[in-house]
Amino acid sequence: MAVSAPRSKGWSTLSVALHWTIVLFILVQFIDHDWMEGMWRAARHGTPVDGSTQTGGWLHIIVGTLVLIAAIVRLWDRFTHGRPPYPENEPRWASLLAKITHVLIYAILILMPITGLIAWFLGVHEFGDIHGLMWTPLLILIVLHVVGAFAQHFWFKTGVLKRILVPGTV
Length: 170
Ligand code: HEM
Ligand code: HEM
Known about the structure:
Layout: H1 13-45, H2 51-81, H3 92-122, H4 125-133, H5 135-154, H6 160-165
The chain binds protoporphyrin IX containing FE (2 copies).
One protoporphyrin IX containing FE (HEM) binds near residues 26, 37 and 129.
């Protein structure tokens, strides 16, 4: 089935659950990335790390890897079952902006963990830099995405906010 094939019954429970799980994981990464940076600096300079830095650093690695898995499963679900159509009662430019934002968010959700894993496990420092460079664009995209979601609800009066909250909403 094509990527954009209409999913006539709205988002699946899996898709909705993964959306909000990813949101939660990104929030965790927002909080724990300082520990990861501390652990990374210590590993590079061969200096010791305290217990909380180590716990926070490993939390970053584990949760970041779970983001990769969750994004891939969500994409797999979307490729195999399609997604609900973009609303008809919103302007073309808004649908296009939403599509571009979604593609870029997915790209970063996949590339950030991969570059982080390469930096950490293979010790390639440049990948650590590339990893860090993607953070600000991700935050900007998320702000755009959330503003878009509220604009959909309050301005264009579409049902997309409801359908990402309640599985099966058309
Ligand atoms: C989507 C998931 C992830 C997000 C949003 C994320 C976010 C971040 C952020 C914001 C930083 C600080 C960057 C900076 O200020 O320069 C960071 C650093 C780092 N993260 Fe992640 N991370 C994710 C997944 C991972 C994974 C799976 C690993 C695997 C080991 C990892 C390894 C690292 C490393 C090694 C650093 C230090 C890089 C440096 O400071 O140059 N991250 N991460
Ligand atoms: C870390 C934060 C977030 C990330 C990474 C994220 C990511 C995504 C992604 C990748 C999609 C899938 C689009 C697709 O497969 O076509 C999506 C859909 C959606 N998100 Fe988010 N999201 C985040 C936060 C939020 C928040 C806070 C809201 C609500 C206020 C929201 C509302 C929506 C809505 C309404 C859709 C469905 C769009 C539609 O059915 O056309 N998202 N999100």
